[in-house]
Amino acid sequence: MNGVVGVLAYQGGFQRHIDVLTRLGFPARQVRDPESAGAVDALVMPGGESTTIGMLMERFSVLDVLRRRINEEGLPVFATCAGTILLADTIVGSDQPAIGGLHIAVTRNAYGRQIESFETSLAGEWIGNNPLPAVFIRAPIIEAVSEDVEVLLEFEGRPVLVRQQQILAATFHPELTDDTRLHRRWLKEFVGLG
After folding, report:
1. Residues 6+ apart with CB under 8 A from 89
2. CA-to-CA distance for 132 and 121, rounded, in angstroms?
3. What total of structural domains would you count in the chain?
4. Which of 28, 30, 90, 133 could form a disulfide linkage to 105, CB 3.0–4.6 angstroms apart?
5. Residues designated catalytic
6. CA 159, CA 146: separation in Å to the nearest integer?
7. End-to-end alpha carbon distance in the chain
8. Rounded to 5 degrees, what are φ and ψ at 133?
9. Are residues 159 and 145 in contact, defined by beta-carbon separation less than 8 angstroms?
10. Which CATH number covers residue 73?
11. pLDDT tens digits for 39-93?
12. Is the pTM value of this prediction over 0.85?
């Protein structure tokens, strides 16, 4: 692996993820077309508006490429918020374009509108002794997980960070804080970098 990290870069918080990865010493390539989607060794799928991102992936012929790379080839992925929605096998009440392959069911915007966004701290064995700051913006709720999905962190009894094989998926926005633990751990454990 030559260590090319990509960030899906149509809409939403992709630049913040690029900034975090660059600070960690892994400048990221923007993924917007089939060629760039095929040339990365790992992918970050950021937050944003999941329906819009899904339609743009279809329009620019990236959806099928990423579906194959993630679900058949095992491309390591770190998904946040809308990225998690786009990977979910079931999006409750929606037939929007999606990649699928992550064996969860999600409900979009489940915590409410933008004005009801919030920040909190998450605790759990997976992140060690220091609580992890988490920003929830029109966040999805993971309603159900398959037995092959490991719940790493919860908030109010619901999964907010899960792992399935090479996929790490969060319902919040770690890129909006100064805490880089999730990006660092993903790069090291899922991608083999760092």
Report:
1. 100, 101, 102, 103, 104, 105
2. 5
3. 1
4. 90
5. 81, 173, 175
6. 12
7. 13
8. -70, 140
9. yes
10. 3.40.50.880
11. 999 999 999 999 999 999 999 999 999 999 999 999 999 999 999 999 999 999 9
12. yes
